[in-house]
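Write out a record, focusing on structure:
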Amino acid sequence: MSTLSDFGACLLLWLLLSALMFAVYVGLVVLVVDPIEVWWRRRARAKRQREQSIREIERIDRDAAVAVDRIQVAYTRAQQLLRNESRKGGRS
């Protein structure tokens, strides 16, 4: 009979240790893995926002370059028109 009670005690001890190991595992997941995952998601979101901001700045820069080119073309045309008008005015 004592061997049966020893076996029962060993089984109970094994179950308790298994439950403790499971609790430690769950605790590690909650305390370590979850915060790392949250940090990783925040980092990825910040990276996406940074890339989106860079694309927006590049778009604004291209638009500004196009506007400067148009202004330069308009200025050159205006100078040509002024020269042509001053030549016509000088001939008459």
User: Anything to note?
Assistant: The CA atoms of residues 71 and 92 lie 32 Å apart. The mean pLDDT is 91.
